[in-house]
C-alpha cells in the first residue's frame, strides 16, 4: 500500500506544487490523473494527501484535496481564516465601494476581516475618520504608515494561528506590510503609476509564508469584484454591514429591506450611528443584486 502524507500547499507554479508536511519537510508535487479527471484545480492553502511518484525530478503526486472551508478564485487561495484588507488613505484614493464588497465576501465565506488603512502619514485626519467609520460599524481596524506599520503582534493577536491573507488594490502597500511583518524583503514592491494613479501589480502569484503558528500570504492586487458573478445573493449584502444588522431587529417589519419601508429603524439611524456613505453602498449593492436575480433565471437572461 502506498504511503501517503498530509500537507498544505504553500505555492503552485506551472503545475508543480510545493507542499509543507511539517516545518522541516517540504515536498514538490504534481497532480495525479484522478484529480485532473475530476477537473479539480489545487489552490494555495489546500490541505492535500500526497504520495511517492517514483519520479526523482518530481518525487510526489497529489492524491486528494481535502474539503475546503472556503476559497477565492482570483487569486486562487483556499481555507482562509483572516483577510487583512489594506486600503491606502491616499495614492491611490481609497475605494470604499471595493472595501465594502470585500467585507460582504468575507461574511459569506466565514472569513474574519481586519481593516488596515495604510499611508496614514499622507493624511492623518482622513485615516482617523475612516478608522472611526469602520470601527463604529463593528470592524477591527488599524492605521499604518511606513514609519509606524502594523506590528506582527497586532496581527497575531487578532488572527491567532490561522491562514492570513493580505488583500486590497495594487499600490496600497500590501507587499511592504507583508515584508515588515515577516522581517525581510520577501515580496517585491512597486510604485504608483503617475499617469493612472494606480498601483503597479508586483505580486504575481500566491505563496504562503510561516507566520507565528500559522501562515500569511500577500495576494495580487485587484481593483474590481462583481458580487453577482461571485454568487452573492442580495439577502447576503447585510452581512457586510453589521451596523445595519444591529438596528434591523428594531424595524417594524421582519423582512424590512431598509430601503423604503415604513418605521425602518435603520433609516432613522442614517447620519447618526450609521454612516451615510456606508448606507448608500448597502442600498446600491442590495438593489443591484435584487435586480440581477429578477433578470436572470437559471443562469439564462429572461
What do these coordinates show?
With 302 residues, this protein is α/β, with parallel strands linked by helices. The protein has eight helices and 15 strands. The chain has helices spanning 33-37, 96-108, 124-137, 152-159, 174-182, 242-248, 265-268, 276-295, and strands spanning 5-13, 16-22, 25-31, 47-52, 60-65, 71-72, 77-78, 82-88, 112-118, 140-143, 163-167, 209-211, 214-218, 296-297, 300-301. The strands form four sheets. The chain has a six-stranded mixed beta sheet, with helices on both faces. A hairpin with a 4-residue loop joins strand 6 and strand 7. Helix 2 (96-108) packs across helix 8. It is globular, with a radius of gyration of 21 Å. The model is unreliable at 189-203 (pLDDT under 50).
Summed up, the helix count is 8
Radius of gyration: 21 Å
Order of strands across the widest beta sheet?
10-9-8-11-13-12
Report the sheet with the most strands, covering strand number, pairing sense and barrel closure.
6 strands, mixed
What's the total number of strands? 15
* Structural category: alpha/beta
